[in-house]
Amino acid sequence: QTAAKLLQQQADKIEIPEADAKKFYDDNPNFFTKLAASHILAAFTDEPGKTAPTKEQEEAALKKINDVQKKLKDGGKFEDLAKEHSDCPSKEKGGDLGEFTPGQMVPEFEKALLDLKAGDVSEPVKTQFGYHLIKAGVKKVVPFEEVKEIIVQHLKKGKESDAVKAFVEGLKKSYKVEMLVKPVAPIQPVQE
Question: In whole angstroms, what is the distance from residue 123 CA to residue 95 CA?
């Protein structure tokens, strides 16, 4: 218990300046950004992304997505067209993919999404899965004040670990440390 108290005393001494927390926030925007999107997928194959499509499958998917895009431009509602035509399970929710953080979607999808304003729909976007029409949701950035304490605790945990290691190493140098328990000898295989 005394050792645990000593270690806790080392940890309790650590202070994280707000400037450090703000720097972490500014250096890691992806941690604090939420993207949102809906999409309609014209898949290349029955197992999107798992098998390479043939030229015919690519052409069929492009034709399908162009037909859906025309219906959209003619006044069709995105959610209804997704329910009727999308090859993604998200079609049950009108194509809604919910919120996600940057880096969770394939690069071509994310790049197209980031070029859109909320409510805008992309031109057909090709990924390994097929062709997508992407409708941008609202991009949210969590304000620093809302996550400041979480960041401070995260940074403190890292510094606590370093402080405890340094404290233990200091003790080893200051005092003669002996192992009181002998290492267990490896078990030898029984010879037949």
Answer: 16
Query: How many Å apart are CA 12 and CA 82, to the nearest integer?
Result: 54
Per the prediction, the chain carries an average pLDDT of: 85
pLDDT above 90 coverage of the chain, percent: 62
Closest CA to 97 of 124, 71, 132, 62: 132
Rounded Cα–Cα distance for residues 50 and 31 (Å): 29
Q: Give the angle subtended at the CA of 97 by the CAs of 96 and 101, to the nearest 5°.
A: 145
Give the tens place of pLDDT for each residue, 17-63. 899 889 999 999 889 999 999 999 999 998 877 888 999 999 999 99
Q: Are 88 and 41 in contact (CB under 8 A)?
A: yes
Residue 119, pLDDT > 50, answer yes
Residue 90 tokens read as 């998200």
Q: What is the number of other CB atoms lying within 10 angstroms of the CB of residue 167?
A: 16
Tokens of 26: 């500014």
Helix, strand or coil, per DSSP, at residue 101: coil
Query: Of 85, 138, 143, whose CA–CA distance to 113 is shortest?
Result: 138
Closest CA relative to residue 44, chosen from 53, 35, 36? 53
